[in-house]
Design goal:
This protein has 14 helices and 13 strands. The strands form two sheets. The protein has a seven-stranded parallel beta sheet with strand order 3-2-1-4-5-6-7, with helices on both faces. The chain has two domains: 228 residues, Rossmann fold (3-Layer(aba) Sandwich), CATH 3.40.50; 168 residues, 3-Layer(aba) Sandwich (Rossmann fold), CATH 3.40.50.2000. The two termini are 13 Å apart. About 3% of the residues have low confidence. Helix content is 42%, strand content 16%. Helix 4 links the parallel strand 5 and strand 6. The protein is α/β, with parallel strands linked by helices.
């Protein structure tokens, strides 16, 4: 018998439901961030123990080509925020069940759309697929409602909504093998439901996918010694991030003589149109000589954009599991300053990195950290590691192998039977 989370038997045929390139990249909220699976697919495809991967992806996906991707077959079959297309994808997966040994879903509870109907249908897919196909299903869920402080994320579900979500989460736990990124999430879910999910953080999948698709490192042009500190604010903007607070701190640092430029990159979370008004107001009042705005970063440009900055600031009010932005910044060798939140500290520990943490609202500490990096910019740039980073890439492959191992632990006896 295969131990869950360990190396699977050779020849496993995997069905994966998730989004892949090019429809979304970090900073575009079309179908989520951390559940974007180009890198996960690439890592699985490099495993000698995986025979094939059928990716049930969003319509419009265009996977990379070449020998590295020869095990991968993409079946575009669903659209974001479309319950009808999600039902169609369910029918397609049922029809192709003989082609796979089991299914993996890489998702979150709100990844399927802006509407409740889309997310309800999406969350019903894994348990129904498990029941009707009698094949193992692993659901890699980036957060449960119970693991999040929703008041910090800009919404507060009603009692009825909480009951509905809890029912769907229980269906996932009782019919599929649920795996979550963080140990604190695992413990919270076990306490709430009496069921212990698996725990596995899959690190650095975003850069891994970029490098596997391009087969070359990102361009890394030389930086003039006197070029100011380059600051990046990156992500999907909404109430879960304190954009106004971090801009106030940056302006204060500028007024004290700081030499830096600031790039604000990322799309607006469509659930929160008021954030767009906040950003537009910021654009109208910003000194455009040192602040640059960019709506989103295509996946093909992600590493080069992040690598083209020295400091990544993560002003999270709340979060959903670990931070993909932190993962990319760490891989690219950026200095990272983050608001101090328990899940971010836990995620950083899992990644094996040591960002600088400051308390939300402690503007003075944030200003001092920015100015200190400005003074020490030469050392910051000198210590940056080259890309690719083989040690990080090996961890991505190992984590992907463990995720498949959760599937193999149930698939092996079925295959032998």
């Amino acid at each position: 018998m295969v131990t869950p989370g360990t190396k699977p038997a050779p020849g496993l045929k995997v069905g994966l439901f998730s989004s892949i390139r090019p429809r979304i990249g970090l900073g575009v909220p079309a179908t989520g961030i951390a559940s974007f699976s180009t890198g996960l697919v690439a890592a699985m495809a490099q495993s000698d123990t995986v025979a094939s991967i059928s990716v049930f992806s969003q319509v419009g996906s265009d996977p990379p080509q070449g020998e590295r991707w020869s095990k991968v077959r993409v079946v575009p079959c669903w659209k974001y925020n479309s319950p009808v297309s999600l039902l169609r994808s369910f029918r397609i997966m049922l029809a192709r069940r003989s082609e796979v040994d089991g299914f993996v879903f890489n998702t979150a509870i709100t990844d399927f759309g802006r509407s409740a109907a889309a997310n309800v249908v999406g969350l019903l897919l894994p348990p129904f697929l498990a029941r009707l196909t009698r094949k193992p299903v692993v659901t890699y869920v980036h957060y449960f409602l119970e693991t999040e402080d929703t008041s910090q994320l800009g919404y507060e579900p009603s009692f009825v909504q909480r009951l509905g979500v809890r029912f769907l989460e229980r269906l996932l736990l009782s019919n599929t093998k649920v795996v979550v990124p963080l140990e604190s999430q695992r413990a919270t879910i076990e306490h709430a439901f009496g069921v212990s999910p698996g725990q596995l953080l899959i690190p650095f999948t975003e850069p891994f996918g970029w490098l596997a698709a391009r087969d070359r490192p990102p361009s890394d042009p030389p930086v003039a010694p006197d070029e100011p500190l380059r600051v990046l604010l990156l992500g999907v903007w909404g109430p879960q991030k304190d954009l106004g607070g971090v801009i106030r701190a940056i302006r204060a640092a500028k007024e004290r003589g700081g030499r830096f430029t600031v790039s604000i990159s990322g799309a607006i979370n469509p659930h929160f149109p008021e954030t767009r008004r906040e950003l537009e107001q910021l654009k109208a009042t910003a000194d455009l000589g040192w602040v640059r705005f960019r709506d989103s970063i295509p996946e093909t440009e992600l590493l080069e954009v992040v690598r083209g900055h020295d400091l990544l600031i993560l002003p999270y009010n709340g979060g959903s599991g670990y931070s993909s932005s932190m993962s990319v910044g760490a891989y690219c060798g950026n200095e990272i300053i983050s608001y101090d939140r328990a899940q971010l500290r836990e995620g950083a520990s899992e990644l094996g990195i040591q960002p600088t943490f400051v308390k939300k609202g402690d503007t003075e500490s944030l200003v001092q950290k920015i100015l200190a990096l400005d003074e020490d910019i030469a050392r910051v740039r000198l210590k940056r590691p080259p890309i690719p980073r083989p040690d990080y890439d090996a961890r991505t492959r190992g984590a992907a192998e463990r995720l498949v191992g959760f599937l193999a632990s149930d698939a092996a006896p079925r295959m032998s039977g």
